[in-house]
Design brief:
Length: 211
C-alpha cells in the first residue's frame, strides 16, 4: 500500500535537506528522489521546480537567522576574537543555506526576466548587516575595538565570509580550495584586527606601501 501523501511529502523534504546540505545547488532532483525512495516524477507532482523544492526544504530568504537577534547580548561577553570566530561560523552556516537559494532564484527568472519577487524584496540581508554593524558598534563603545565605521567593518566581515562560502560551494567537489573554514575565519579575524585593534590607534592606513 502506498504511503499517505503527507508522509511522502515529509520524506521528500527530509531527503532534499540532506542532499542539498551535502551537495549544495549542484544536487539534482534525481538524487533527492533516490534518497527519498520515490520516483523523480513524484517530486514534480508536488513541487513545480527544483527551486521550489529547495525553498520548501531549506527555508525562506525572508527568515533572519536566530543568532542575529542575539548579537547585542554578545557585546563584551568574551574575548572579541573568539566571539567573532563563533559569529563567523554562524554567518557561514547561514550563507551556506541561503546562497544556493539566491543562485537558484537568479537562474530561474520569472516572466519579466527577474528572479522571483521574494528574492528581490527580502529584507533579511539588510537586517543581518544592521545587526552585525550594531554588534561592532557596541564593542567599539566598550573600548574593545578601535573606533571605525561599524558598517564598513560589518560589510568587510560579511563580504569576506560570503566570498569564502561561494568559492567553497562552487569548487569543493574539485578540491580546488582545501583551506578549512576554521583556518580561513581565524586568519580573517587576525587580519581584521590589524585595523580594529584599539592598540593600533587611529593612525594612517598604508595603501600600496605609502601612507
Amino acid at each position: 500500500m502506498a504511503r499517505p501523501a503527507v508522509i511522502q511529502d515529509s520524506a521528500i523534504l527530509e531527503a532534499a535537506r540532506e542532499v542539498f546540505l551535502s551537495r549544495g545547488f549542484r544536487a539534482t532532483t534525481a538524487e533527492v528522489a533516490a534518497r527519498a525512495g520515490v520516483s523523480e516524477g513524484s517530486i514534480f507532482k508536488r513541487f513545480r521546480s527544483k527551486f521550489e523544492l529547495f525553498q520548501a526544504a531549506m527555508g525562506s530568504l525572508d527568515e533572519l537567522p536566530p543568532f542575529a537577534a542575539e548579537l547585542p547580548k554578545r557585546v563584551g561577553r568574551a574575548d572579541p576574537r573568539e566571539e567573532l570566530f563563533e559569529i563567523g561560523r554562524e554567518v557561514a552556516a547561514h550563507l551556506r543555506q541561503v546562497v544556493p537559494l539566491h543562485l537558484m532564484a537568479w537562474s530561474n527568472p520569472g516572466p519579466d526576466g527577474a528572479p522571483p519577487g521574494f528574492c528581490l524584496q527580502s529584507q533579511a540581508p539588510i537586517l543581518l548587516l544592521k545587526a552585525l554593524s550594531g554588534y561592532f558598534e557596541g564593542e567599539m563603545r566598550a573600548g574593545r575595538l578601535a573606533r571605525r565605521d561599524p558598517e564598513i567593518v560589518a560589510r568587510t566581515f560579511i563580504g569576506s565570509v560570503h566570498n569564502y562560502v561561494i568559492f567553497d560551494l562552487l569548487f569543493q567537489a574539485q578540491d580546488a580550495l582545501p583551506m578549512p573554514e576554521e583556518t580561513y575565519l581565524r586568519g580573517l579575524i587576525e587580519l581584521l584586527f590589524r585595523g580594529v585593534d584599539p592598540q593600533n590607534g587611529s593612525g594612517p592606513i598604508r595603501l600600496g606601501g605609502r601612507a
